[in-house]
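Last lecture ended with a question: if I hand you only a sequence, what can you say about the shape of the protein? Today we answer it with a concrete record. The protein is CDC20/Fizzy WD40 domain-containing protein. Below, first the input exactly as provided, then the predicted structure, then a couple of comments.
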Amino acid sequence: MDAGYECSPVTKSQSRAPLHTKTSKDNLDRFIPNRSAMDFDYAHYMLTVSKTGKENPIATSPSREAYRKRLADSLDMNRTRILAFRNKPPTPSETVSTDCSSSIRCSEPVKSRRYIPQTSERTLDAPDLVDDYYLNLLDWGSTNVLAIALANTVYLWDASHGNTSELVTVDDDTGPVTSVKWAPDGRHISVGLNNSDVQLWDSASNKLLRTLRGCHQSRVGSLDWNNHILTTGGMDGQIVNNDVRIRSHIVETYSGHHQEVCGLKWSASGQQLASGGNDNLLHIWDRSMSSVNSRTQWLHRLEEHTAAVKALAWCPFQANLLASGGGGGDKCIKFWNTHTGSCLNSVDTGSQVCALLWNKSERELLSSHGFTQNQLTLWKYPSMVKMAELTGHTSRVLFMAQSPDGCTVASAAGDETLRLWNVFGSPEVAAKANARKAVTEPFAHLNRIR
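The predicted structure:
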């Protein structure tokens, strides 16, 4: 929150001290000469005598001229000014300002440095959390409910009331759960499984609405929604767009990765998709280039990372800016112009980059890391100066999720704990309102499609 102070307008009575004794200078004026302050004898001399030698100089000896100059200096006769004026207005007092503009500036708020707590607000147990870099087991929905997958079970934690409930426990034949992702409405949630199936659940009624099959050959480790399109990424390297409104749900397929797809993120506009894989590749896909009858060609194929690319985050204040993070053999955060495919900057973080989140109201980026510190690092963008390092986890911080108001961040690590951090300061009302906009119409069809 901004902190500031206000200055009262300066009045006429404040500009003068009461019962002030005037000095002789107060009788002088800058433009009208003051007779009482003038030397009339000197003025007469200057007007009648001293001017005689200037237009018609009289020849004199050098010694006489030198004597005349010394005499004039001694008697202060070298003055050239006759009239007496006030030279300059008095210097304003430092404690009282007579400038209207300075009063306006005083009323402007002065932004204070935000306090960033160095410890987590809350720590929750997360037993049986799978310690796997390539999975995505944590997500925070728009209705302020946190979903986390622990082995074969998906749990829901209501951040508003602190209540915990179990959504689903799958069989060993289909589990463990390999990914979870809330739909934009904050009610429906997709669950990726180890056997390649994807389930769609209604969290309000704890009802399984649909199971998507045939998308992949093996586990589904990454998910993301684009309105009614659920995009899935598998260990088989395939990316599939599923329209959940229709029975034949597979509408587009993206092929470009040779190994597991571990990162998927749609841009805010829904026009571009970023995908990262265990093959060290980052792809940018454009929906305008999608093809129903054939495999879609990527817009950009980016090969600068030297390890798996899981951490992806689209910038909230610049639509074509994407941040990506590399694994243990890379350790870099890279920034991309997704229109041109150019790398804008690369920062070596010194450790495995597991997840990335942008601050919704400030130009800041949060990253989570593995060995050796297992920390969360807050960066100032674009300078990439470290603002804070948050420690507490004793194993790599694999997953992060951001609350709908943009204020709190949840982190889950291989140490089987879930921690809540108040790292992004006070939320903005506009961001909170936008995050809670429900998109319910596409999901009305789910109850009719089985």
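Comments.
1. The longest helix spans residues 62-74.
2. Helices lie at 40-48, 52-55, 62-74, 100-107, 429-435.
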